[in-house]
Amino acid sequence: MSTQVISANPTRPVSVGHGLPPGAIAVMLMLCVSWGFNQVAVKLALPDVPPMLQAMIRSACALPVMLLVGRLRGVKFFERDGTLQPGLAAGLMFGLEFVLIFFGLVFTSASRAAVFLYTAPFFVALGSHQFLGERLSKTQWSGLALSFAGVALAIGVPQPNVDAKVLLGDLMVVGGGALWAATTLVAKGTALRKAAPEKALGYQVAVSIPILGLASWIAGERITHMPGALSLSLLAYQSIWVVGCTFVIWFAMVKTYSPSKLSAFTFITPLFGVVAAYLVMHDTLTPVFGVAALLVIAGLYLVNKPDPKVTPDPNVPA
Predict the structure, then answer these.
(1) Nearest CA to 316 among 265, 250, 255, 249?
(2) Which residues partner with 14 through β-bridges?
(3) Percent of the chain at pLDDT above 70?
(4) 249/29 Cα distance (integer angstroms)
(5) Confidence class of residue 305 from pLDDT cuts 50, 70 and 90?
(6) d(CA 269, CA 28)
(7) Separation CA 58–CA 48 (nearest Å)
């Protein structure tokens, strides 16, 4: 997600002139690779475990991992620090985000859903401007648009036969992207920013468990047989690494750097998903993917290109 860093003075608009440092870029690339493969992991486990149940099991298994890591780091999960209200709000949005995305996939195609889900950086940019005082330059808006075009090209042209159900699914996925962005903004612009990443994410994972469980029950999902070793290992990957580790790292990044600049990197995630599908599921790659990757890289360059007119603020991290 991408723009610039919040000033020490929250009432002063900040310009987004400076990109992320190399270390932050490396971490974001690692996160995007992990999230890209996660899509393949979910798909491979579907024959044994339905999607909403996967999401619930993932949250239920990830919560003790985060509690353990937080305890080892001395995090005080039950200390009164003003994070309860925004934490519960973020948890509600986190749970509903996955409900909308997975139910939306019932009505719309995976390719359309992937494109619409990655409208999240636009919501982050707009929200950062409205609520956090950030500003995107014309060049950086162009970079976001270019990266989005690359994602759309890599995923493929949407199917022409669009009816009311498909549009409903599209809207659900867009809603999921908006909730993803809203959760990021809540973590950046409320007392959650001062909380440890394990605590900030712990709220979301804990609240999402009953939400996802209820959604699974409403959908009539059930596990009809003992999942195989592959599905169990993929569930462990999703729970321990993706939610238990990478989501915590993401929230630590959100608290340190500009949410809109970070969000721009999420455009790369579906591209890594295509590569993972090629390596693991033997999907075919075409020259279109190369062009799409160049568009995404060019867009990220524009988003993170330093603005020579902007003087760095010594009070905020680059």
Answers:
(1) 255
(2) 134
(3) 84
(4) 12
(5) low
(6) 10
(7) 14
What is the Cα–Cα distance from 130 to 52, expressed in whole angstroms? 33
Do the Cβ atoms of 243 and 58 come closer than 8 Å?
yes
pTM here?
0.74
What's the CA gap between 245 and 241, in Å, rounded?
A: 5
Phi, psi of 50 (to 5 degrees): -60, 160
Give first-to-last CA distance, the chain, whole Å: 15
Q: Which is nearest to 253 in space by CA: 267, 264, 268, 239?
A: 264
Cα distance between residue 309 and residue 203, in whole Å: 40
DSSP the chain: -BS-PPPSSTTS-EE------HHHHHHHHHHHHHHHHHHHHHHHHTTTS-HHHHHHHHHHHHHHHHHHHHHHTT--TTS-SS-HHHHHHHHHHHHHHHHHHHHHHHHS-HHHHHHHHTTHHHHHHHHHHHHS-EE--HHHHHHHHHHHHHHHHHH-PPPS---HHHHHHHHHHHHHHHHHHHHHHHHHHSGGGGS-HHHHHHHHHHHHHHHHHHHHHHHT----S---HHHHHHHHIIIIIIIIIIHHHHHHHHHHS-HHHHHHGGGHHHHHHHHHHHHHH-PPP-HHHHHHHHHHHHHHHHHH---TTPPPPTTS--
What is the per-residue pLDDT for 217?
93
Distance CA 311, CA 263 (A): 23
Structural contact between residues 99 and 174, judged by C-beta atoms closer than 8 angstroms: no
Cα separation, 9 vs 223, whole angstroms: 52
Structure tokens at 132: 């956090």
CA–centroid distance for 102 within its chain: 14
